[in-house]
Specification:
576 residues; alpha/beta; eight-stranded parallel β-sheet; 17 strands; globular; Hex-like_dom2; HEX_eukaryotic_N; hydrolase; Hexosaminidase; glycoprotein
């Protein structure tokens, strides 16, 4: 069984005579093999690896990926594919989120109504879980299960309503959000149930760490119960946070009873939280620093939410040891174990989840493995592009799945014109999607917004070229490259429009395609003015910038990501 903090270092020496890999631990051997695989290049003479010597070790011992199987159930092949990807980028903790308001996803033999009534039939048997544990262990990956409590627990209450604080009735939640139902922390029967349940699950999962959730419990059911309010008064619990701390302390003792270490989201950090609880910070780095300052070990997830469609550069810039940690002592700094990328699945089905996780999670993996000084963003993107191609060879088919979805959207006709549009749009960031359109468990995720990657590489490269041109730092070929792109985007609309109107799945893209053409036309005008040093009319430029601001707004729950680059070109023109 693997343990936190094992020696994962390795030494790799490659010469003309061969390659020698040495490590003090099998984990180091696994990591060294992945490095070697990534160094292999195809040449006219065959496969080759450059001569070099590498001494490598991780910066942080906890480098994880969390996948939420509660909201959308993730089949076993999806889990295995992501474990393969984790091995490739040297991540070593798979955090498996197994219960949610929308589903209880694991077989309990002690309390079978959990899965029989709380899963819609979508759950993992214990034998299947053991298979995943073996698969992960063979790849140097620990598996930490999470059962969220006291909130996010509606699926528990469908089969066992006496666990809840309210009177019910309860059913599997079909919408997304934060809901009122919560476990009753005042009844001894709650802890008797959890004692048996945790005994069953801690025996199934061998890792020393066990996650009990603890996030987003709003306390409304507690506040509505005179009985619970009386309990709080009797036990001198001043508010809901104190009541949750009481609950956490009771559950932590049940976990500790099984020789396990409790992990919880940062809401569990309260004045009386036991000091062996590990704090997973999702609300900001300040809570991580505060936990470390108070002697708690912690894991950073704030800034690593890959479901929020932020760029790889955004994730790469987030370091567990900045923003509040500078004042920590060496001993306090050592309390920060590392971090986890998190993939919540409100907007991710099994078909598309891999494309939401990869390849950007590799940027998180590098931040957690490599030295703090390794932070060149351009270099990161170059290497990420190469790794993205290799991940498909390793069994992560997110690129081919996206291509299949595009063909489906185009009615199985030639998808080239739709691909041109798809290459420069991306989903809205953060929590904007839920504000643009209402979704639930049954919403089909089969539109272009579900097909395209979270980050448009084409738009990012165009915006970089536009910035160089606008600042007088154009590299050789930049002018021609920008012109070719803008011409392609300008002319694509005429080809694409007839096919868009033929399907209810794509008719919503008509304005987006048209606006892409108009934005590209504006970009070409600005490019000509800059290249020929021709001044432009002030009113014309004002109108162009105003129009571009409109094009920045979401259409069909998508963002046109070339607009920032076109704006830069327009702003760089001289007014006559």
């Amino acid at each position: 069984m693997q343990h936190l903090g094992e020696d994962e270092s390795y030494h790799l020496e490659i010469t003309a005579a061969g390659a020698l890999l040495t490590a003090p631990n099998p984990l180091g051997v696994l990591h060294g093999l992945q490095t070697f695989l990534q160094l292999v290049q195809s040449t006219p003479e065959g496969f080759a690896v450059a001569a070099m010597t590498i001494d490598d070790r991780p910066r942080f011992p906890w480098r994880g990926l969390m996948i939420d199987s509660g909201r959308h159930f993730m089949p076993l092949d999806v889990i295995r594919q992501n474990l393969d990807g984790m091995e490739a980028v040297k991540m070593n903790v798979f955090h498996w989120h197994l219960s949610e308001d929308q589903g209880f996803r694991i077989e309990s033999k002690t309390f079978p109504l959990l899965q029989e009534k709380g899963s819609d039939g979508l759950y993992y048997t214990q034998d299947q879980v053991r298979g995943i544990l073996d698969y992960a262990r063979d790849r140097g990956i620990r598996v930490v299960p999470e059962f969220d409590m006291p909130g996010h627990a509606m699926s528990w209450f469908v089969g066992y309503p006496d666990l809840a604080s309210g009177s019910g009735p309860y059913k599997i939640e079909r919408h997304w959000g934060v809901f009122d139902p919560a476990m009753d922390p005042t009844r001894e029967s709650t802890y008797q149930f959890l004692d048996q349940f945790l005994g069953e699950m801690t025996a199934l999962f061998p890792d020393a760490y066990f996650h009990i959730g603890g996030d987003e419990c709003n306390g409304k059911e507690w506040d509505a119960s005179p009985r619970i309010k009386q309990f709080m008064q009797t036990h001198h619990l001043k508010d809901d946070a104190a009541l949750q701390a009481y609950f956490t302390g009771r559950v932590q003792k049940l976990v500790t009873k099984r020789d396990k270490i409790t992990v919880g989201w940062d809401e569990v950090l309260q004045p009386d939280t036991p000091h062996d609880v590990v704090i997973q910070s999702w609300r900001g780095q300040d809570s991580l620093a505060e936990a470390a300052r108070r002697g708690y070990r912690g894991i950073l997830s704030a800034g690593y939410y890959v479901d929020l469609n932020q760029s790889a550069a955004d994730h790469y810039a987030v370091d567990p040891l900045v923003n509040g940690t500078a004042a920590l002592s060496p001993a306090q700094t050592a309390n920060i174990l590392g971090g986890e990328a998190t993939m919540w699945t409100e907007y991710a089905t099994p078909e598309i989840v891999n494309g939401r996780i990869w390849p950007r999670t590799a940027a998180v993996a590098e931040r957690l493995w490599s030295a703090q000084s390794v932070k060149d963003v351009d270099s990161m993107y170059q290497r990420l592009d190469t790794l993205s191609q290799k991940l498909s060879y390793y069994g992560l088919p997110y690129q081919s799945v996206s291509e299949q979805m595009l063909r489906r959207l185009s009615g199985y006709s030639d998808p080239v014109a739709l691909q041109v549009l798809a290459s420069v749009v991306q989903p809205p960031r953060d929590y904007a999607r839920e504000e643009l359109k209402s979704y639930d468990v049954f919403s089909p995720l089969n539109r272009l917004v579900d097909t395209v990657p979270p980050e448009s590489d084409t738009a990012r490269r165009f915006n970089e070229v536009a910035a160089r041109i606008a600042t007088g730092k154009a590299a050789p070929g930049d002018w021609e490259k920008a012109r070719q792109w803008l011409l392609l985007w300008r002319d694509n609309d005429a080809t694409l429009q007839p096919s868009l109107v033929r399907s209810a799945l794509t008719v919503e893209l008509v304005p987006m395609s048209h606006n892409l053409s108009k934005a590209a036309t504006t970009g070409l005008i600005a490019l000509d003015a800059l290249q020929n040093s021709t001044p432009v009319d002030a009113e014309t430029r004002k109108r162009q910038l105003s129009e571009l601001k409109e094009f920045e707004k979401p259409e069909a729950v998508l963002l046109n990501r070339i607009v920032p680059g076109v704006e830069v070109l327009v702003q760089a023109t001289k007014i006559q």
